[in-house]
Every structure is written in C-alpha cells, then in structure tokens.
Amino acid sequence: MKTLKNGFLMPVAAIIFAVAASAFTATSSTEEVDYTGYLNTTSPCSQPIACAPSGIDLCEQGDQQAFGKYVLSQTSCPRVMYKP
Question: Keyword set for this entry (predicted)?
Fold first, then answer.
C-alpha cells in the first residue's frame, strides 16, 4: 500500500508544480506594452516623445510631463513615464 501511495503521489505533485510554475511565466495580455510617452496637448496621447517605463526623473519636454499607455489599444495615457 505504501508503494502505491508514493507511486501515485509523486507524479501528481510534479504535475501540480508544473502547472503552478507555468502560471507565473505566462503573460496575461497578448498586446505589446507601449513605452512611448505622450504629452497632454489638446488631443490626449497624440504627441509622442521618447520615455522609459521606470527610472528616477520624470519624462518631460519643457514644462509638460509625459504620460504613457499600459497597452497600445488604450485611448488615454494614465501611466507615469520616466526619462530614458
């Protein structure tokens, strides 16, 4: 009985571990992430400038701060962007 229990438990544990590990490596969205910053002018997200998704200094052009999109299909720019 003990060998039957160990013989069944190990493969089941391996499958559970593999499924859990693959859940962390899979991406939830198929869209690309946009790292372009946009200035808030009269039409939002229309004037692109080079920015980065992380950093220390905010991405700005002149006195205007740039914001970015989380995914390309967004029509608004809620993401804070940083200098590249």
Answer: Signal
Beta strand extents in 40-78 (DSSP E only): 47-50, 60-61, 64-68
Q: Residues 31-56, buried b or exposed e (16+ Cβ, 10 A)? A: eeebbbbbbeeeeebeeebebebeee
Contact 49, 59 (CB under 8 A): yes
Q: What letter represents residue 27's amino acid?
A: T
Smallest CA-to-CA distance from 74 within 36, 22, 41, 42 is with 36
The predicted model scores a pTM of 0.56
In 3D, which of 39, 28, 32, 13 has the Cα closest to residue 73? 32
Backbone angles phi, psi at 52, to 5 degrees: -130, 155
pLDDT (tens digit per residue) in 36-64? 888 877 777 888 898 898 889 999 988 88
